[in-house]
Amino acid sequence: MSAADSAVGLGVLAQQLGGVLLALVLVLLLAWGVLKLLSRGMHGAGPGRGAAAALRVERVLSLGARERLVLVRHGEVQLLLGVTAGSIRLLDRAGPAGAPPAGPAEAADNPVL
């Protein structure tokens, strides 16, 4: 094997290695962009952000290992939710001033999830 053959072999090897590195950089940039778009959508920067911003958890009361009472406000309406490991139930609803509140019996028959 002559010096010219080994130089050509090294040139081909360097060219292939450069191509692999370029492809790896492109894949990593694409993955970073997709993750950035996904995280932006999860944090509410896209459409529907106003609806998510109008929903607030006011208070949480832990009743056990997996049971909680959660007071949620959506605009002017307050919802009292019973949250367990297997379900979420609407326990009470307080509407805007002047609106009659829903009774606990009515709300308990209608599970949220």
Q: What layout of secondary structure does this protein have?
A:
Elements: H1 3-42, H2 49-53, E1 55-62, E2 68-74, E3 77-83, E4 88-94, H3 104-108
Antiparallel strand pairs: 1-2, 2-3, 3-4
Description:
The chain is of the alpha+beta class and 113 residues long. The protein has 2 domains: 1-50; 54-108. It has 3 helices and 4 strands; from the N terminus they run ααββββα. A 4-stranded antiparallel β-sheet has the order 1-2-3-4. The longest helix has 40 residues, at 3-42. The mean pLDDT is 80.
List keywords for this structure.
113 residues; alpha+beta; 2 domains; four-stranded antiparallel sheet; 4 strands
Structural class estimated from helices and strands = alpha+beta
What do the pLDDT scores average to? 80
What's the SSE pattern? HHEEEEH
Number of distinct beta strands:
4
Compute the number of helices: 3
Note the overall shape: rod-shaped
| Low-confidence parts | none
Distance between the termini: 75 Å
Biggest β-sheet description: 4 strands, antiparallel
Strand order of the largest sheet: 1-2-3-4
Tally the structural domains.
2
* Helix share, percent: 40-55%
Q: How much of the sequence is in beta strands?
A: 25-35%
User: What's the alpha carbon Rg, rounded to whole Å?
Assistant: 29 Å
How would you summarize what this structure contains?
With 113 residues, this protein is an alpha+beta fold. The chain has two domains: 1-50; 54-108.
